[in-house]
């Protein structure tokens, strides 16, 4: 069973700080929290239902606020076509208190649940209907056409990390597309497809999104096989395999920091299958 990674902050003072920031945002928007707390990656964000909307607060040290992750949701709301199903942004506000900056986003409340709660890793076969897979393919194709200067994955990361985590020389990526950049099972709703969490979207190697979703599906081989079948037109190409390797490399880096320990050997095995080279020991 996967240990949750979407949890409250480790330190009690950060929990209190985020709850106070959330209360400030609710007052600013004149909304009343009415649902349970939902924490993001290691407590970086806090969200709750507020009436018929969803309120999410993200924080960062003031000197690190702004940039790609900070602006992703609002830019996606204007740049990504509505044919890509996602919550609609209704309002936002920024403020600073002490050493921390905050951004609060008020979005449409989605009643359709995520496929997995508390972790990006698939832990069972959700028996998704064929229409859901068709919609995911269509959303991926529509997103790929969006022009943007946002870089979700940089060549510099590939150059620095491929040998350390994949045991091969870094490739020069020449085939890029626009994608979500965090395509996992906690960011996908079913049975009606909704795609959550647009903070990191941007340009990336072709095959990165599909390779990431496949990797997070590896504990359930039937679903992993379905991902590969649905996106064979991408993953079964040289460019798609290179993009998948970038996704695997980034996940192996996360695993080296103690995240998803049970997933690490499955990712390593998949990487070795693609490269024919042993993955370096952690």
Query: Percent of residues in helical segments?
Result: 25-40%
Q: What is the fold-level CATH name, i.e. the topology of the largest domain?
A: Aminoglycoside 3'-phosphotransferase, Chain: A, domain 2
Q: Kindly provide the name of the CATH class of the largest domain.
A: Alpha Beta
Question: What strand line-up does the widest sheet have?
Answer: 1-2-3-5-4
Total of DSSP H or I helical runs spanning 4+ residues = 9
| Structural class by secondary-structure content | alpha+beta
Q: Which runs of at least 5 residues are low in confidence (pLDDT < 50)?
A: none
What best-fitting shape do the alpha-carbon axes yield? globular
* Strand elements, count: 9
Distance between the termini: 22 Å
Secondary-structure element order, N to C: HEEEHEEHHEEEEHHHHH
Relative strand content: 15-25%
Number of domains: 2
Mean residue pLDDT: 94
How much is the radius of gyration in Å? 19 Å
Main sheet summary: 5 strands, antiparallel
Task: Please tell me the CATH architecture of the largest domain by its name.
Answer: Alpha-Beta Complex
């Amino acid at each position: 069973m996967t240990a949750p990674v979407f949890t409250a902050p480790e330190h009690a003072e950060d929990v209190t700080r985020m709850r106070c920031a959330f209360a400030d945002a609710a007052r600013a928007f004149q909304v009343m929290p009415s649902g349970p707390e939902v924490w993001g990656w290691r407590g970086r964000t806090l969200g709750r239902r507020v009436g018929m909307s969803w309120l999410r607060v993200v924080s960062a040290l003031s000197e690190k606020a702004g940039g790609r992750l900070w602006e992703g949701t609002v830019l996606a709301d204007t740049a990504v076509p509505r044919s890509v199903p996602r919550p609609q942004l209704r309002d936002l506000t920024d403020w600073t208190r002490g050493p921390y900056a905050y951004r609060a986003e008020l979005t449409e409340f989605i009643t359709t649940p995520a496929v997995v709660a508390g972790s990006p890793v698939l832990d069972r076969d959700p028996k998704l209907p064929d229409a859901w897979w068709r919609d995911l393919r269509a959303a991926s194709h529509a997103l790929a056409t969006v022009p943007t200067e946002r870089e979700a994955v940089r060549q510099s990361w590939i150059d620095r990390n491929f040998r350390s985590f994949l045991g091969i020389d870094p490739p020069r990526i020449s085939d890029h597309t626009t994608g979500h950049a965090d395509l996992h099972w906690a960011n996908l709703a079913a049975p009606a497809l909704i795609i959550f969490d647009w903070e990191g979207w941007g340009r990336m190697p072709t095959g990165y999104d599909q390779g990431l979703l496949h990797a997070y599906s590896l504990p359930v081989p039937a679903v992993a096989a379905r991902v590969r079948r649905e996106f064979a037109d991408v993953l079964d190409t040289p460019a798609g395999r290179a993009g998948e390797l970038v996704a695997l490399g980034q996940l192996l880096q996360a695993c080296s920091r103690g995240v998803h320990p049970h997933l690490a050997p499955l990712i390593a095995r998949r990487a070795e299958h693609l490269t024919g080279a042993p993955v370096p020991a952690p």
